[in-house]
Design goal:
Two copies of one chain form a homodimer. Chain A is α/β, with parallel strands linked by helices and 318 residues long. Chain A is 49% helix and 20% strand. In chain A, strands 1, 2, 3, 4, 5, 6, 7, 8, 9 and 10 form a ten-stranded mixed sheet that branches. The radius of gyration of chain A is 19 Å and the shape is globular. Chain A starts with a strand and ends in a 5-residue tail after the last helix.
Chain lengths: 318, 318
């Protein structure tokens, strides 16, 4: 069994951390706003794969209280990237591995700079998880995590898969982290982007209005093209299969419950949105590589404006 | 002097009607929500071209009270198109001419079906006018009206220009109504569309954020291309000059005050937006003609969703 620190105990961190605890791992959750609720009432997971209650999880208000662990699961929002190093560092010892269950492009690069490339894993969760009342998480649909390693090292990937053996989470391995990241973006960019820019709607409305549905297809194709150009530019052999990806991702979303993607929840609640990692960096790479991405460019510009308005409303500098 | 009915006495209708009254015409305003305020306090125009007060304008609660006139100025919102015929008809006699100071594509066609093509004029206002307190209109910038005729008849255009002789409004004539409409859309689509879909911002922010500024250029080029294809499909010789139009419209907007386009005001206030005439119909024509318009397509889809959300919030059927 491993000692695990969940840094960023939002809905996604709590869900996967709880599944590891259920499997017998010693899981410590770094908690901020939900600390008191969880201390009083435990952590409650309402899940399509079976409910779960941790009456007395290990919770901490600081990473120093947790100290070095075998695995850090970092599930912070990408918007917190500048504070991330300080939050993760106290949990990193000589043999610690770090799994990022985060959205966006370029985050593993930062972790590799801070802590060394060998430790860094990408975890790509295809799942529908929303926060409920404080201390409660709703897992609505799907849930597999794809495990990849920053250096695409097969034995490290195997170590990553081994963590989840026995946990009630389906895991897949990806031999190429960058391809897996772009595959994830092929869902996140259309659905996080369009549910926000269409005014704060659920995924079913994006797919139910003909113009938005076409836009979802179009921007997904752009992301696949940008991803393939980026893979080629990195000298990697993997390629994304546009037709298969579009059919698969649209199809899975068609049969999914009306879902509020994380960025849409942030938008509705006036919280910081993951614009830089999820939109700006993919667009930057596409443009640098000469890939035509009009849909991505427009959505990115709109997201930047919407995020700026939200910051102004929160009284933050812009 | 002419007898004039202003149907749709919002900010634009009040402004231009007041300028005609100032020039000595007998101008009747069909008023709804501002009737009592104007009856009590008159109509007040605060304008960069000189303030103007009409202490006792002719105002009516129904078109029947006004009856047949020489000129109908129809300044209704395009969203009211289905009620428009009934509002205009009582003012139309044998020799009545009708000038549409309205936004969007395809509206003159409807008027021509209802009242006969010969009567129908398009008036394209390049101006910044917003409502103030009830009975007050703020004219912030610009103001010329381009006069065109549905059949592009030169003697009718001259009659249209003659109406404004002596009024404190700069008028231009357009020999081709369809070209003039697309020229107007080349401003309206980027600036009405992007100020809304960027979250409800003023024009200066669209031009001040690099991604939105690029998007404004890109969608403007699409509109020009669609317009030229539409002109060719109609067998018309006029063409829009992309480079000159983009330079002119972006340049004029760069030096303009921070402006709230009419659709952005509707968005912020939760009112019906002119989506069909200003976005859907231009997109429909572009797609029918095989013109690539990714920016226009995405903005249109987003506008339809935002308008649907506003209708749901108003409790209207969608």
């Amino acid at each position: 069994m491993s000692r695990v620190a969940v840094i960023g105990a939002g809905a996604v961190g709590c869900y996967y951390g709880a599944r590891l605890a259920e499997a017998g791992h010693e899981v410590h959750f770094l908690m901020r706003r939900d600390y008191d609720a969880v201390a009083a009432g435990g952590l409650r997971i309402e899940s399509v794969d079976g409910d779960l209650v941790l009456p007395h999880p290990h919770i901490a208000r600081s990473s120093e209280e947790i100290g070095p662990v075998d695995w850090v699961i970092c599930a912070l929002k990408a918007t917190a990237i500048e504070e991330t190093r300080a939050l993760v560092a106290p949990c990193v010892g000589d043999t610690t591995r770090i799994l990022l269950i985060m959205n966006g492009l370029g985050l593993e690069e930062r972790f590799a700079e801070w802590f060394g490339a060998r430790r860094v894993f990408g975890g790509l969760a295809f799942t529908c998880i929303n926060r409920g009342e404080p201390g409660t998480v709703h897992h609505i649909d799907y849930g597999p995590v794809t495990i990849a390693h920053f250096e695409d090292d097969a034995s490290e990937i195997a170590a990553g898969m081994a963590l989840w053996a026995g946990a009630k989470v389906k895991t897949l391995s990806a031999s190429c982290l960058l391809a897996a990241r772009w595959m994830k973006l092929a869902w996140n960019i259309p659905f996080n982007g369009l549910t926000v820019t269409a005014g704060g709607v659920t995924t079913d409305r994006v797919l139910g209005m003909p113009g938005l549905r076409e836009a979802a297809h179009a921007v997904m194709r752009e992301v696949v093209a940008a991803g393939n150009a980026d893979l080629a530019a990195h000298g990697l052999a993997d390629r994304l299969d546009e037709g298969a990806i579009v059919t698969d991702l649209i199809g899975r979303t068609d049969v999914m419950a009306a879902y509020r993607p994380s960025t849409m929840v942030d938008f509705i609640e006036g919280l910081p949105m993951e614009v830089d990692a999820m939109f700006v960096e993919p667009l930057r790479r596409a443009q640098a590589l000469g890939v035509a991405t009009p849909y991505l460019a427009l959505i990115t510009a709109q997201m930047q404006s919407l995020d700026r308005l939200a910051r102004e409303r929160r009284g933050e500098p812009t």
